[in-house]
Amino acid sequence: MTSSPVVTPTPPPSVPSQLPAKLYALIFSLLPIAALTWVWSLWSINVPKWDDHTLKALLLGMEKATSLPEAIQHIIKQHNEHRIAYDRVIAWLDYSLFGKLSYTRLMAYGDLSLLALVALFGVYLARYTQRWYLFLPPVVLFIINLANWENLFWAMSAVQNFAIVIWSMWAFYTLSHRPSPWLAIGLAAVATLISGNGILLWPVGAAMLFVQHRHKHMVIWLGAGALVLFLYFFDYVQPSVAPSKHDDWLKIGSGLLAFLGAAADALPFYNTYWLSAGLGTLLVGFWLYVFVKVLPDFRKPAGWSARDTFAAGAVAFAFGTAAVVVWNRVGWGESAIITSRYRIYSLTLLALTYCYWLSAFYKKSTWQAALGGLVVAGAFWWSAFIMNQHDAYVLRRFFVTSQFNWTYRSPGPVSNMDSVTSRLIDNAPAFYDSALSTIYGPATGPLFPIDSVFRNPDNYLIQVSAAGLESAGVPSLRHPDQGVWIQMHSPKRTYLINTMPLRRRNWRVPLGLLPIYNVREPFIVPIPLTELDADTYSINALVVAADGSTQLRPTQKTLTVLPYTLKEPVKNW
């Protein structure tokens, strides 16, 4: 009897380790977050801007409230066309926890919420792609970058403009992917209390449920929406705002495209409005193709897939927001359309387009799509990081001069900050704290050259000579306060005025082949007619060095400011 040969089992094929791929995803996802966190720590400053001041009124109102209904009324009270209940709740919690309101903490709350948007795309990629983490770095690069500079460094803007997108996107995702609409209804209700843009969620959500043939849920959704909108408009008063001109349909059409493609404003080229319109055209073309492709799925028993429904809802929300913004602001110029505070819509649309393309169309190498996305998104991120530093410096210096000018309103360096404001907030530390003796002392340095001082219908204008800029230096990443500031002095009071040299827009700048500022080119400092009290002022140049030392240099120029009453219609931004 012969024995059977021993059969050696074939070992299973070895599975390549996923550790290198996961390390790649982790490193390239954390790098842009770490870089933005670093510059935020250098440039952010605890100073309110415009709408931020209304939060002080909230705190006073909440302190005086004697009942829960009265407190709720302070929370949901109308602000322009919005309710901003979300902003107010966060501000009140911050004040209650820390004893004083901090605008930098409000910025941080809003900025950190961008991680929730990244997480949403991570959930989407994990559901619809293989090795999803490889595709996360491009999403992070699109979402968390300096193109958002205005929101990143402005407290209420960070909380509101980021939050409305994040809560809306999560509402669309849960509505399209969960069998019950109730969680999405809650998210949509919060979004509506964040911003008036949240009203768009209700018709868009109803359309999403319709294409999924979820008619019962659509009725529930519409009922909930009707209740939320009734409460929203219960005591609503139409705000008095500047009317926008609607007589140029080419401007309206190009404005819609430019709003959707406003991310292109971070590129190192001139005429970024039309670059933005070009990018918007590409995005609109892609999503029109997707719509035509998935439209026949409506005839299927279950209607559109959850993936297509979510994407369509998110895109419709972006398009609807573009229509509202452009219709209301097209008359105020191109910059009002592609402003940084709304750029999160364009950036989110870019991230969504990349993720949807991966899930619906791309069938080739995972690494090709991952690395290709990294190169494109990384180049855009770097361009925004370099080019939008200028804008972040301008905003920071606006904060610094605003705080100085409302703090020091008497002939000498004595704070005029009222006791109520001092109890609610702290003044931010600024370079001028250690330079008050210089600012209020005689101008003793060498003559600082100013070419001319003149006036146009909106501003007083000071033209700074290129020779002065060369000798004074310019702001830099580590030293955003370095350079020239204008000091305006009269016997009654002293002002600080921000100045910034002209930014180069050239492809060589992000490559490090050209500095962003041309110190050989003169530039103009505008001062709004309503900025200064009527008086005659001597004009001096306050030069701040990289080490924080200061020097006050005379210009031998004066400016006589006449009484002026603001005549233009009110803006609500």
Automatic annotation (TrEMBL):
Coiled coil start-end: none
Entry keywords, A to Z: Membrane, Transmembrane, Transmembrane helix
Keyword Nuclease attributed: no
Transmembrane segments: 23-43, 106-126, 132-149, 158-176, 182-211, 218-237, 249-266, 273-290, 310-330, 342-361, 367-387
The name this protein goes by in its record: Transmembrane protein
Organism annotation: Fibrella aestuarina BUZ 2
Taxonomic lineage: Bacteria, Pseudomonadati, Bacteroidota, Cytophagia, Cytophagales
